[in-house]
Amino acid sequence: MLLIRCPWCGDRDEVEFRYGGQADVAYPTDPHELDDAEWGNFLFVRANPMGALTERWVHTAGCRRWFSVVRDTATNEMTPDIPRRRESR
Amino acid sequence: MVVDGHTSPAPDRLWRNPEPKSNYDVVIVGAGGHGLATAYYLARNHGVTDIAVLERGWLAGGNMARNTTIIRSNYLLDASAALYDHALRLWEELPEELDHEFHFSQCGVLNLAHTEQEARDARRRAFANELNGVDAEWLTPDEIAEVCPILDTSPRLRYPVIGATYQRRAGVAKHDHVAWALARKCDEMGVDLIQNCEVTGFVTAGDRVTGVHTSRGTIGAGRVGLAAAGRTSVLTDTLGISLPLQSHPLQAMASEILEPVHPCVVMSNHVHVYTSQAHKGELVLGAGIDTHNGYAQRGSVHVVENQLAAAVELFPIFGRAHLLRTWAGTVDVTPDASPIIGPTPYGNLFVNCGWGTGGFKATPGAGWVFAHTIATGAPHPLNEPYGMERFTSGALIDEHGAAAVAH
């Protein structure tokens, strides 16, 4: 069981959350410019690292808000995605 | 071993443990079921024997050691039915051919339907199976009770069993013994099975791979085939090949050893558990992946709880059994829940990956078509639809939901 730190509610059990996969996958700025390979890449390919992955979770059984964390996929150690949140502001 | 005060000779080994040579015609990464079957059919069907199968841990210690051993071919789509039934026909030949007992038992699989929509989908799948030459029957609750008396087919369940598809040719095999049987034959034909030899990267020259970097030095290769399951991305990322794979924990579990009570395999999509009883006597249970990506080979307890709740609801007598072990492997899942088997942008590098939760059943079939792909440089007709280009063309083989089980 993962213990996940919701930025608003604090540490909660994994069962309160749903997983959202890789974070920061931006919709293409001009989709019409994409060829089939690039479009397929956008639709189907996501990062699959063994190590740090910035990913989305939603606190469905709590505040229902989305947030990002950095999790090491080999150890499950989680850290808040603070640098990236600052960048996007 | 000491018997009657005398030291008996060590038992015969099933395979040598050779030192790696500096070069091989073919290097296969991963000595699980698929890697071993690929080496076996490369030697048997194509006369290629200068092969090394490189394994980072011990032989068949990854997903081959962790699966629930279910073998079936009752898939909806034409490309899937052809591939998986080809595998099942090979399973039917292998006990004699490999000459090493692995307890292949065609005890049949029931895929339960609990809702009207599920029943309609299941019957559609059974009709599609018949049209594709895959044996399939639709059973009513009374008929299900005859096949599997311990299953609760009464209307008292929250999600009553309203019918099931039944594939009689489906069943189970003892996974470790399958690997050992293949390994023994590979070794006999001159294949080097090299354990504790982790591939960490590739040697390239232009658009070709000329060797692999390993924890035991660099090994040259004429062709390279990846059969590395959940760790495929880690390898292909080093070459800049982006594959649509997500590696997830997949858990399974076993009870203590019990008298034979469970005569077949039962799978339920809706309450989501699948069950069988191993040859040795353990009840073996599994279901879907943990939702998050992960390489830790461990999953979360709530996933186990959900499966056990479903199992106890369907099989009231399981309530008396003790859970002895749970474990997890790392499975590589594709967006359409079908594998990727074929060439890569590197002319002599081939991938067999993306089998997700269902790779064991395909072991000989995957080996057969992957060996063909490596030996000839082009896919076998059975794996032609399974190239990575389908994620550009859009010709997906969408078995998510279409298959007999959720992933």
Automatic annotation (TrEMBL), chain A:
Stored InterPro entries: SoxD, SoxD_sf
Biological processes, Gene Ontology terms: tetrahydrofolate metabolic process
Pfam families: SoxD
EC number, UniProt record: 1.5.3.1
Keywords from the UniProt entry: Oxidoreductase
Keyword Oxidoreductase: yes
GO MF, any single term: sarcosine oxidase activity
Name recorded for this polypeptide: Sarcosine oxidase subunit alpha/sarcosine oxidase subunit delta
UniProt organism field: Actinopolyspora biskrensis
UniProt lineage: Bacteria, Bacillati, Actinomycetota, Actinomycetes, Actinopolysporales
Automatic annotation (TrEMBL), chain B:
Any one of the GO CC terms: cytoplasm
UniProt keywords, alphabetically: Cytoplasm, FAD, Flavoprotein, FMN, Nucleotide-binding, Oxidoreductase
BP terms from Gene Ontology: tetrahydrofolate metabolic process
UniProt cross-references to Pfam families, sorted A to Z: DAO
EC number: 1.5.3.24
GO MF term list: nucleotide binding; sarcosine oxidase activity
Keyword Cytoplasm attached: yes
Chain ranges of the Rhodanese domain: 26-70
Reaction catalyzed: sarcosine + O2 + H2O = formaldehyde + glycine + H2O2; sarcosine + (6S)-5,6,7,8-tetrahydrofolate + O2 = (6R)-5,10-methylene-5,6,7,8-tetrahydrofolate + glycine + H2O2
Obligatory cofactor(s): FMN; FAD
Lineage: superkingdom: Bacteria
Family as reported in the entry's similarity comment: Belongs to the SoxB family.
PANTHER family xrefs: FAD-DEPENDENT OXIDOREDUCTASE DOMAIN-CONTAINING PROTEIN 1, SARCOSINE DEHYDROGENASE-RELATED
Protein name: Sarcosine oxidase subunit beta
Lineage, uppermost ranks: Bacteria, Bacillati, Actinomycetota, Actinomycetes, Actinopolysporales
